[in-house]
Recover the amino acids of this structure.
């Protein structure tokens, strides 16, 4: 009987505190519709960007970085040549995940641009999202 009570207390406590890192947030992203892609592809890219924007606003980002140093010595006769290289690689991640998409809205914004002294017209795809998200 005591074990059952302990399990219920643990489950209740976990669900009670597990809810504290769930947020509702909005995000927005704009992208240009290029000539060589479909409108659906641009909408998908805009939606992904808006979701990332909302997650960044809700929980922030984490940056993971790694460094490597390369040293090479080549000896030929009496000569020694040393080559060194240093590389840095970094990745940025959002610190949350989408639980539910509450609202998604797309809009198209026409605009003018000058390319090679010629006036051309383009379209911006804008996406506004509202999501429910949990922190990692």
């Amino acid at each position: 009987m005591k074990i059952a009570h302990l399990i219920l207390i643990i489950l209740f406590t976990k669900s009670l505190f597990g809810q504290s890192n769930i947020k509702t947030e909005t995000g927005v992203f704009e992208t240009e519709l290029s000539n060589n892609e479909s409108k659906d592809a641009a909408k998908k890219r805009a939606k992904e960007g808006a979701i990332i924007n909302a997650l960044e606003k809700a929980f922030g980002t984490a940056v993971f970085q790694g460094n490597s140093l390369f040293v090479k010595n080549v000896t030929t006769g009496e000569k020694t040549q040393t080559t060194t290289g240093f590389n840095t690689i970094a990745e940025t991640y959002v610190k949350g995940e989408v639980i539910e998409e509450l609202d998604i809205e797309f809009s198209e914004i026409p605009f003018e641009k000058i390319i090679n002294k010629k006036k051309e017209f383009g379209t911006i795809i804008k996406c506004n999202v509202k999501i429910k998200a949990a922190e990692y």
Observations:
- Residues 23-135 form one domain.
- The mean pLDDT is 86.
